[in-house]
Amino acid sequence: MSVFDHPEFDDHESITWFSDSDTGLRAIVAIHSTVLGPAGGGVRRWAYASDAEALTDALRLSRGMTYKSAVAGVRFGGGKGVILASEDAPKSPELMAAFGRAVEALGGRYVTAEDVGMTVEDMRLVREQTAYVSGLPPVEQSAGGDPGPWTAMGVFLGLKAAVAFARGSDDLKGLRVAVQGVGSVGMQLCRYLNEAGAELQVADVNARNLDRARSELPVTVVSPDDILYTDADVLAPCALGNILDADSIPRIRAGVIAGAANNQLSTEDDGRLLTERGILYAPDYVINAGGIISCGLEYHGGASEADLREAIHRIPERLTKIFEESRSGGRPTSEVADAWARRIVAEGAGA
Ligand SMILES: NC(=O)c1ccc[n+]([C@@H]2O[C@H](COP(=O)([O-])OP(=O)(O)OC[C@H]3O[C@@H](n4cnc5c(N)ncnc54)[C@H](O)[C@@H]3O)[C@@H](O)[C@H]2O)c1
């Protein structure tokens, strides 16, 4: 497996592979950049098809974290952990402790938090081994905790800004929103959308999460194979990445894409395909920054919940600026956001 020539390598500062024979832990921590601060980024536990797939995910996600924190003004660089889930390494307090020791071994260059497949309770176990962790139970800090609900708040506000830009009004009453994935973020987003009067179509591959959505809210359940292509006004991807590509984009019917999932575009070219189809795309790492804003304030300390809410309420303003720059320059929103992020990091490097 090539690393330095990997298409997603993008000058990562370091990539560390961890293994612990007692617990079966196998993990990768990719640190893309520490220019703007310690590399902040959650850890994802997922059953990857191969080590190569896990590496690709770690590299893409960690670069996304650099961009996300840069644009959101969070004092973090970018990094990401992935734990390779397998039957030989069941989730256990010991496995979490082993991951905590791995984070500690990086000496503070990487600050972890929860992502897909991880919980606040897992972070508490990680915290027993290292201080380089955020997203802890609220009792241990003032602002912060589980980043999921804060991410959902930012996505909701960002989705409204995207709808306002595309349709001239941010009134969601009667608007049809298709939500892919009703996990931590997707479910909370659905609650906000329902409150605002939107009509919800949802899909999930996890029956328990789907049942929760169905029992709590008036939703129409759509098959996971169809949710991207359903007849909706807004598509909110809140599952995994790599869903927007040359195959899926021509079939999407929604005019706005605004959701939480990281790395929604398969390649940079896919941003252009969306623009050509007239679909307004809210760049994922801009709209889903609520979680890292929360983790950043929690980690650096001294912030109140009011500070956190105020910071998250600035997400729509940033998105609108990106939409405007995209429209006036005829460039995809994803390209505009990437250019912003690179400029902020370059300025940080020169400071
Ligand atoms: N949690 C956060 O604070 C946060 C912050 C930023 C970005 N994100 C991103 O948002 C997305 C969701 O995060 P989360 O914390 O809600 O994770 P989660 O694991 O709680 O929820 C994800 C849901 O998506 C479902 N899913 C997976 N594949 C699917 C498919 N093909 N079709 C339909 N459903 C599918 C899962 O079953 C699960 O219910 C992820 O991409 C994550 O990286 C999360």
From TrEMBL:
Annotated ranges, domain Glutamate/phenylalanine/leucine/valine/L-tryptophan dehydrogenase C-terminal: 145-350
Protein keywords: NAD, Nucleotide-binding, Oxidoreductase
Keyword Nucleotide-binding: yes
Alphabetized GO MF terms: nucleotide binding; oxidoreductase activity, acting on the CH-NH2 group of donors, NAD or NADP as acceptor
Active site as annotated: K80 (proton donor/acceptor)
Binding site for NAD(+): G181, V182, G183, S184, V185, G186
UniProt cross-references to CDD domains, sorted A to Z: NAD_bind_Leu_Phe_Val_DH
InterPro entries recorded: Aminoacid_DH-like_N_sf (IPR046346), Glu/Leu/Phe/Val/Trp_DH (IPR006095), Glu/Leu/Phe/Val/Trp_DH_C (IPR006096), Glu/Leu/Phe/Val/Trp_DH_dimer (IPR006097), Glu/Phe/Leu/Val/Trp_DH_bac/arc (IPR016211), NAD(P)-bd_dom_sf (IPR036291)
A GO biological-process term: amino acid metabolic process
Entry's family note: Belongs to the Glu/Leu/Phe/Val dehydrogenases family.
Biological function: Catalyzes the reversible oxidative deamination of glutamate to alpha-ketoglutarate and ammonia.
Protein name as annotated: Glu/Leu/Phe/Val dehydrogenase dimerization domain-containing protein
Organism: Elongatibacter sediminis
